[in-house]
Amino acid sequence: MDINHHVTVIDFIEKGHSLYVQVEVFDGETNKHFREEVRFLDDLLYGELVHPTKSPLSQPCRTVTVEYLRNHFGR
Description:
four-stranded antiparallel β-sheet, 4 strands, globular, alpha+beta
């Protein structure tokens, strides 16, 4: 079965060393949508959406989301 995860950057703003990102994610494994804010502090990515143990996303979707955001913003 082909599971599609979709990540969409809605908006972002940079303040000093921080980058705040409003992101919408569709988790193809759970068939749920999430819209939350995550934050880069230099190269570190923060937020419950991408947290290894607190994320509501399935593990494969969380991995796709983290990789997408790191590649998209070059961090």
